[in-house]
Amino acid sequence: MLKIIIHGVRGSSPAIGQNFTKYGGNTTCIEVQTKSYRLILDTGSGFKNIDFFKTKKQTAILYTHFHHDHIQGLSNNPSLFNKRPPIKICSAMLKEAELKKILSNYYSPKFFPITLFSEYKNLIFYNFDEIEREMLDEIAIEYTPLNHPGGACGYKIRTKNNSAVFLFDHEINDRDHLKLIEFCRDVDIVFWDGMFTNQEYKTKIGWGHSTIEQGYEFLQSANLKDLYICHHAPWRTDKEIDQLSALYPKNLIFAAEGATIEL
Question: Which of 73, 113, 118, 229 has CA 20 to 30 A from 254's CA?
């Protein structure tokens, strides 16, 4: 069983106002639950929507990369800072020490009022392979490098019967495209970086993001059941997303904050 809860799918910066209520304005944060475990992919501003009091499942945060919109929400969840079991933090991109250095720098003066990880001892850094081994009884976690400025990785999460891939920030390139298709082939769902349309991409080459049209081509090439467009451009309104959605079949879905997917 995989239960996926979408807490934020906006890219680059939060979007605020009545034109951004249907798909949501919070930046990237997606929760994946199995019987015993909970994985949280990135802590964008949507991280505040997770209720840590509701479950006693072992919890780990997996970072795909460290751009502002993917880490900015870690400090903004009031239920995170309780006496419950520790929250494990890791990334397939970096070893424990380097990951801690990056996030500690971000969450300390002069960028943040307090030294976050000194104040809250329930936030514990781990190497990715330690988390991977701990969860092998129920979950297999794989990763792949993505084409994004500063580096990024995508994750595949598999149980015995279901699978999902998360490709939050990636710019298609000919060198790695076939490898990525094989990484995703026949999984149940893929979350795809659809920051731009093909027309918008013409002036955004090298920014590290793919297009909605490329997502549709990928859905067919990798033989996927469903592909969810995420990392919505911060300027793209609900009405504009609805208009784009109407152009595609039902298995190309524009991800919406607050949605739950059960596989």
Answer: 73
Beta strands in the chain (DSSP E): 3-8, 29-33, 37-41, 58-62, 87-90, 123-125, 140-146, 152-158, 163-167, 189-193, 226-230, 252-254, 260-262
Q: Do the Cβ atoms of 198 and 217 come closer than 8 Å?
A: no
Closest CA to 123 of 10, 40, 33: 40
Report CA torsion sign: 215, 216, 219, 220: negative
Residue 104 sits at the vertex; the CA angle it makes with 207 and 89, to the nearest 5 degrees, is: 80
Q: b vs e for 49-84, b when ≥16 Cβ sit within 10 Å of the residue's Cβ?
A: bbebeeeeebbbbbbbbbbebbbbbbbebeebeeee
- Residue 218: CB atoms within 10 A of its CB come to 21
Kindly list the structural domains of the chain, giving each domain's residue range(s) and its CATH number in brackets, ordered by start: 3-262 (3.60.15.10)
Residues in the chain: 263
**Mean pLDDT, contiguous 10-residue spans, the chain (263 residues):** 95 95 97 95 96 85 97 89 81 96 92 84 92 93 96 96 95 88 93 97 95 95 93 98 96 97 94
